[in-house]
């Protein structure tokens, strides 16, 4: 069998480990070959690819990024199912493993409905895909954010400042919640929970009253109580979604005005996506890659690899895409006990 692999959407620690796991599992199962499409769906529509042999994947599990390249390319604006099917026929590709998040898997679902044999692997540092307990990349992003906040706290302590750390999280505040709790944040602001400036100011002043330099963690998709939409000044991506970022800089002067405490903001941005994956993410990504190949060889299609507890299974694309996995109110309530 000849299997195609692509990585699409935002890059993520662990992508290379998935590729390696998928390929090695195929080699162990028999005379199967693999091709990697360059730059995500762009390669699937143009046919640009590379052969994934043992030499190509040697030692890549610990590397960040993706050896295949990635993009936010929409295949349905560029030939769609027919274009992809024609390229697969030219290359002798029998099935596709699509590694990506919500946008990538939605495209994979549409291609599957068009008759292409496709299986998905869930990738997002936001951990917001339904149908799986965790996505690879999340653990690394949380660790990077926590390390950054530990550093922000030392400079905040030195100058008696309030520090605002903005992390990724378009619709779900999992990174903010986990890294904020780990770093001992005095306030965590997430898209799922409307929070007033008065509440934020109270948490900040309470922390200062106890002799602490306040740390506020905010997800990029957080919507202040006086706003209707997340802060976005960067236009739209290829799938028509606003490019978020900058809410931390917007909140900092408001916090300073309300509390009288000098406040500085730092946006971590793509630092959270970069670098080598954590040990947890290397193992999870490798297992997911192997599970994807096993599912393809069993003839499964239009499904996504899923982590349930410590076991791997597959679920229909619809289970992952019908709605996002957001932070439940009870999980936020746990963290809120620690605020102020």
From TrEMBL:
InterPro entries: ATP_PFK, ATP_PFK_prok-type, Phosphofructokinase_CS, Phosphofructokinase_dom, Phosphofructokinase_III, PKF_sf. The record marks 103 as: Important for substrate specificity. PROSITE patterns: PHOSPHOFRUCTOKINASE (PS00433). Residues 2-296 form the Phosphofructokinase domain. Its cofactor is Mg(2+). It catalyses: beta-D-fructose 6-phosphate + ATP = beta-D-fructose 1,6-bisphosphate + ADP + H(+). ATP binds at residues 10, 72-73, 101-104. One of its GO terms (molecular function) is 6-phosphofructokinase activity. Substrate binds at residues 124-126, 161, 168-170, 220, 264, 270-273. Mg(2+) binds at residue 102. It is an enzyme of class 2 (transferase). Its EC number is 2.7.1.11. The keyword DNA damage does not apply. Signal peptide: none annotated. The active site is at 126 (proton acceptor). The keyword Protein transport does not apply. Its main location: cytoplasm. NCBIfam families: PFK_mixed, PRK03202.1. Catalyzes the phosphorylation of D-fructose 6-phosphate to fructose 1,6-bisphosphate by ATP, the first committing step of glycolysis. Belongs to the phosphofructokinase type A (PFKA) family. Mixed-substrate PFK group III subfamily. Homodimer or homotetramer. PANTHER family: ATP-DEPENDENT 6-PHOSPHOFRUCTOKINASE 3, PHOSPHOFRUCTOKINASE. This is ATP-dependent 6-phosphofructokinase. It comes from Microbacterium mcarthurae.
């Amino acid at each position: 069998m000849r299997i195609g692999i692509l990585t699409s959407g935002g890059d993520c620690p662990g992508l290379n480990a998935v590729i390696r796991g998928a390929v090695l599992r195929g080699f162990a199962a028999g005379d199967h070959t693999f091709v990697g499409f360059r730059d995500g769906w762009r390669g699937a529509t143009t046919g640009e690819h590379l052969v994934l042999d043992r030499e190509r994947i040697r030692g890549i599990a610990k590397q960040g990024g993706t050896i295949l390249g990635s993009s936010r390319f929409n295949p349905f604006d560029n030939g769609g199912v027919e274009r992809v099917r024609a390229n697969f026929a030219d290359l002798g590709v029998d099935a596709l493993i699509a590694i990506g998040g919500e946008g990538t898997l939605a495209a994979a679902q549409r291609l599957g409905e068009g008759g292409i044999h496709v299986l998905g692997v869930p990738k997002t540092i936001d951990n917001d895909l339904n149908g799986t307990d965790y996505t690879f990349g999340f653990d690394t992003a949380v660790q990077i954010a926590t390390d950054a906040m530990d550093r922000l706290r030392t400079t905040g302590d030195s100058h008696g400042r309030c520090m605002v750390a903005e992390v990724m999280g378009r619709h779900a505040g999992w990174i903010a919640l986990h890294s904020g709790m780990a770093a001992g944040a005095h306030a965590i602001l997430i898209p799922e929970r409307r929070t007033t400036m008065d509440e934020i100011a109270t948490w900040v002043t309470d922390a200062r009253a106890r002799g602490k330099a306040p740390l506020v963690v905010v997800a990029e998709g957080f919507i202040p109580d006086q706003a209707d939409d997340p802060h976005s000044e960067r236009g739209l991506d290829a799938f028509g979604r606003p490019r978020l970022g900058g809410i931390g800089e917007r909140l900092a002067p408001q916090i300073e005005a309300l509390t009288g405490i000098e406040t500085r903001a730092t946006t971590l941005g793509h630092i959270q996506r970069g670098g080598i994956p954590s040990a947890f993410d290397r193992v999870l990504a490798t297992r997911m890659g192997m599970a994807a190949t096993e599912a393809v060889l069993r003839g499964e299609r239009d499904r996504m690899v899923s982590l349930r507890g410590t076991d791997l299974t597959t679920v229909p694309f619809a289970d992952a895409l019908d709605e996002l996995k957001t932070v439940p109110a009870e999980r936020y309530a746990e963290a809120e006990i620690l605020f102020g």
